[in-house]
């Protein structure tokens, strides 16, 4: 429990220092330097306490050998380790070609190169978010704070995973929507889904709201990548991918502490569940039915809310719906690893950049702070002894709770956007009305403030 309290205390300290440095005393560089030093110390602490215990474990056991196998010994591409389908390379074969250049280096050099490229992708992600955020210095630095204080992001980099690269693609897709480059945005969303399969839910949403240019870009990208994968690696390798990676989890699940999906939560609450074991276990019928019922409820409520046509459809409404779909993709997927929750940096950053029509006051702000604190702590496991009690097993699923809170906030605000008096993104003393989308596009850099 104490690491979580430590994290909350550090988050409060950083917030107070940032408030002084960027809003109350913006002309004093010493205050900003103090914030930077404190953030560096916090980042070092997050890295030291975060899982995994073996640094770059995913890169070492999955991506690095896959880069060599895809060009020399394709039948060995999906050889499993530790007798579990989640250990080893799990993407479709064509993705392994991305790691062939790494496999030409020694493991240590390849790991350092991956770290450098990962840091570059994160810097580019922040820059892209800055480009579509309100042009206010303190808002931009809040986005930086969100990234540097995000436990799942540290977990992804420390594991040597690709989730933070998929985040960059999602952000690029949102920027494409901002620029009205819908086909290009569809390409970016599809590439992210190739890396992380739960993101395939976006194409269902795009088709449901009849954004056909997005669907075209998304669909053509998936077809081309699948065709290239089949042409290069052959049908047999894809059969092996399905047999070794997908099929073993059909009708089974994982109760491990870092599986943060609704089904994972339910499995952890079962008697005898092992939280540090990644072998699939049969999911009882009650768990399956409960998980499916909750998923159906969330999807049904989301459809109901999004079918409520707003009086105007500004771009921010689309961002709200995209954020809801992102939450759903994490919650209803059978396997959602904890590092997937770094995807929620996208809606949280949009809120920090004043691109979501959520009021920055009262209960709305409190709810956003709560969900941020729930999805941002470092990824840790206290041991089987520390998680024997039912309450402890529920507490370890706080990422799921944070995503549920965020989904609820987004659903509530989307419902209000369809009411007779929609929320306004622009507030001023003379109560000017919300500008039309055409007017907003003429002056995209105009500052906006939220109001209730």
Give a verbal description of the structure.
With 452 residues, this protein is mostly helical. The chain has 20 helices and 2 strands. The protein has a two-stranded antiparallel sheet. The chain is globular.
Keywords:
452 residues; mainly alpha; 20 helices; 2 strands
Structural class: mainly alpha
User: How many helices in DSSP terms?
Assistant: 20
Alpha-carbon Rg, integer: 22 Å
The biggest beta sheet reads: 2 strands, antiparallel
- The global form is globular
- Low-confidence spans: pLDDT under 50, at least 5 residues? 420-452
Helix content estimate: 55-70%
Question: Can you list the strand order of the major beta sheet?
Answer: 1-2
Number of distinct beta strands: 2
Cα-to-Cα separation, first versus last residue: 36 Å
SSE run: HHHHHHHHHHHHEHEHHHHHHH
The whole-number mean of residue pLDDT values reads 84
β-sheet strand percentage? under 5%
